């Protein structure tokens, strides 16, 4: 077993090597198991996932395009007290972000007040002028949000980023829980773990609550997918099946007299709500990218006419833009009058001369990210990069500084993880899933992503990371 690194917070063990209260029973349970127990269970989980087809696609890979996300059989455990702080902070944050979205597409009071630069919003490629003046049902723009959190100490959680466009991973959260309950019923029953299996019902209730006519007796909800080659197609199909709604592609829908219809084997059926899993640019070739084959011609006009709801709304990407991220504490204070419950990671905006100078002088010690990047691509992790990688990245950064932000390298918390040598701490983050419609619904737990390589801080599945089940304990 690897020796624990004291430079980061170990969620299971304190500085004396004793298990923290939420992990006491897990620690005792692990100590009773034979040395090959977790290896056997990992293979069992892999067989289950392979049988179910729980895969994700990797673009640009020379290997097989479909991969299993590595699953770690040791759960991450959060106490009820810890979750209370997390959920209150997320609730505050998502309400403020939705208020921000409504404001920037209407009166732009936050810009007039000088709390955020106008160019940062108006010139941002994620800002859609087509949304100006339009208000979605219930004034909700971002209905499904995945908030990425990292932990640095017993009581300190930071928001790493807000995913307000089309956050993925909820299907893995649910399948991880199902697998844990199947493989370790004795361990599961020894804890009072908050359930996550109600998420599809909560998602459908949320989507139906933002329909153009929420009083309608039967709402027709569909999930719009780019198709089977999309990296998250498994999740699209999983959610459609779990909610009991149709999974459609753009060719399955059409617009007639300002309304959206779904082709069926009988007669066309009017669609009330579209949970879209395609990007803004591809939604409607008549309004956005004209050569898009993924969207529906006329969809945006039907949306603006109030005849269909698109979730998340077009233009929500401005709220999770990494350049905007640095201003989220100001956004929260401006719209709620409160200090943020959850902290932001200190951020340098490379479009500012002083910030850029600092970043260039400290590339070896910080993390630099593309403003519009995701999945762990287009970034530099200074402490683990070679001198050559830093030199090459310096040139890229100097050529287009406005495309980057930088942050200090955080000492991410670590959780016990099954590795080749046994059980060892590995760095983790957490993506809780939030639904906003008639009310805010936060699923207790979320997707814990784990960096499986020793010392690695990159948890993304596309970069070799895995996932864990996340247990939130009930009082």
UniProtKB/TrEMBL annotation:
It comes from Roseibium aquae. It comes from the Bacteria. Pfam families: CP_ATPgrasp_2. This is Circularly permuted ATP-grasp type 2 domain-containing protein. Gene3D superfamilies: 3.30.1490.270, 3.40.50.11290. Residues 75-451 form the Circularly permuted ATP-grasp type domain.
């Amino acid at each position: 077993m690897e020796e624990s690194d004291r430079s980061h917070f170990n969620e299971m063990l304190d500085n004396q090597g004793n298990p923290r209260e939420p992990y006491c029973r897990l620690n005792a349970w692990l100590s009773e198991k034979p040395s090959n127990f977790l290896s056997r269970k990992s293979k069992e989980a892999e067989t289950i996932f392979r049988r179910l087809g729980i895969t994700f696609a990797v673009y640009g890979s020379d290997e097989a395009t479909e991969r299993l996300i590595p699953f770690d059989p040791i759960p991450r455990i959060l106490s009820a007290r810890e979750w209370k702080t997390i959920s209150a902070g997320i609730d505050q944050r998502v309400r403020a972000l939705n208020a921000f979205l409504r404001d920037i597409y209407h009166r732009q009071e936050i810009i007039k007040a000088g709390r955020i630069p106008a160019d940062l919003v108006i010139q941002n490629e994620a800002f859609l002028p087509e949304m100006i003046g339009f208000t979605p049902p219930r004034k909700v723009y971002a209905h499904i949000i995945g908030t990425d959190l990292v932990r640095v100490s017993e009581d300190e959680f930071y928001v790493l980023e807000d995913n307000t466009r089309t956050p993925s991973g909820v299907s893995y959260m649910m399948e991880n829980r199902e697998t844990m309950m199947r493989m370790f019923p004795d361990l599961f029953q020894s804890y009072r773990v908050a359930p996550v299996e109600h998420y599809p019902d909560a998602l459908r209730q949320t989507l139906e609550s933002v329909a153009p006519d929420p009083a309608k007796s039967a709402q027709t909800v569909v999930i719009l997918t780019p198709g089977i080659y999309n990296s998250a197609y498994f999740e699209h199909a999983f959610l459609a099946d779990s909610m009991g709604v149709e999974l459609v592609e753009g060719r399955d829908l059409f617009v007639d007299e300002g309304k959206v219809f779904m082709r069926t084997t009988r007669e066309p059926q009017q669609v009330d709500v579209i949970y879209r899993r395609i990007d803004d640019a591809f939604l409607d070739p008549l309004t956005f990218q004209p050569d898009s084959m993924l969207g529906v011609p006329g969809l945006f006009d039907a949306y603006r006419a109030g005849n269909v709801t698109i979730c998340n709304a077009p233009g929500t990407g401005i709220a999770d833009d990494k350049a905007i991220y640095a201003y989220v504490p100001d956004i929260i204070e401006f719209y709620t009058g409160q200090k943020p419950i959850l902290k932001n990671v200190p951020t340098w905006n490379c479009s500012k001369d002083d910030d850029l100078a600092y970043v260039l002088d400290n590339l070896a010690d910080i993390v630099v990210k593309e403003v519009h990047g995701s999945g762990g691509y287009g970034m530099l992790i200074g402490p683990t990069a070679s001198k050559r990688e830093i030199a090459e990245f310096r040139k890229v950064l100097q050529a287009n500084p406005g495309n980057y932000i930088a942050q200090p390298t955080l000492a991410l918390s670590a959780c016990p993880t099954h590795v080749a040598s046994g059980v060892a701490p590995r760095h983790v983050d957490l993506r809780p899933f939030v639904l906003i419609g008639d009310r805010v619904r936060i699923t207790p737990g979320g997707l814990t992503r784990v960096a499986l390589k020793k010392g690695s801080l990159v948890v993304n599945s596309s970069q070799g990371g895995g996932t864990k089940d996340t247990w939130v304990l009930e009082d």
